[in-house]
Amino acid sequence: MPLFSDEEIIRLIEQAKETATSVQRKKKQKAPETPFTGDPIDNPDNPDVPKGGRWGVTGMGQSPEMFRTRVGSPGLNKSPMGRVKSAEAQKLAQRIDQVQPDDVIAYSRGAALYNAAKATGQMKSNPSVTYMAPSSYRGWSDAPVPSASGGKTLIGDSDSLVPMKQAAKTAVAAGVPMYVLPGFSHTGIMYSHGDVTPGGSEVDAEEIVSDPEMPDWGKSGIAPGGKGGEVIVKQAERVKQHITESQLRRIVRKAIIEHLKESDRFS
Predict the structure, then answer these.
(1) CATH no. for residue 250?
(2) Which of 22, 103, 110, 129 could bond 54 through an S-S bridge, CB–CB 3.0 to 4.6 Å?
(3) CA-CA distance, 265 to 39, in Å (whole number)?
(4) What pTM, to 2 d.p., does this model score?
(5) Backbone phi, psi, residue 188, to 5°
(6) 123-149 as b/e, with b when 16 or more CB fall inside 10 Å?
(7) Does residue 27 belong to any structural domain of this protein?
(8) pLDDT tens digits, residue range 111-134?
(9) Are 203 and 179 in contact (CB under 8 A)?
(10) Tally of domains in the chain
(11) Under DSSP, is residue 166 helix (H, G, I), strand (E, B) or coil?
(12) pLDDT tier, 35 (very low <50, low <70, confident <90, very high otherwise)
């Protein structure tokens, strides 16, 4: 004999429905701001930090602690999501003038934020800038890439978020050399610590910008096909060709210079 009749099962189901509809979801409360409890150097509001040295402008959703763990340098800001706001850019400009870094690593969205901070006209400091996988043309900000007093642009040939061509445009606009790190992804390049690691190669940024076969997927979040897709494979192949051509040009240039020196010696 069954435990419940069909009529009782129907009645229990109806009761469960009534109970479910009567329960109202509580509104999610925003967590209150809490005092910073980590290392004081990672507190972007702490005025008492060492001046000079290398500091970072963090990527989307990154905390200064996370940036220092991955890149090895303290962060100047805590980066929110979404487009760069005017108040955020002004705050970074003030922070840079406060810390007076020798070199700034502007990573991903941080590149757009740094550009916006320079565009405020409030930043008196003019540090060297290492643009790392820069999202200058990804829609985070409309600020132009400013001319840099020194630095470089770094990107991995496996980056599926920032197109190689857009990184090259950043290098050209900033007037800094560009280096490609083989095998590095958008996230993985942070572990290069902003340096040209063994295996990194300099490329001609202007040549990459003008290369009609170099992929550029615009402002979309990720390259069509993802990390292992045809677009990323093609990008890596085109970069290898540019690296080879750049190396050949340097070899020829060096040979010409040595020849001229030798000729001067015997003239």
Answers:
(1) 3.40.50.1820
(2) 103
(3) 60
(4) 0.80
(5) -60, -30
(6) bebebbbbbbbbbbbbebbebebbebe
(7) no
(8) 999 999 999 999 999 999 999 999
(9) yes
(10) 1
(11) helix
(12) confident
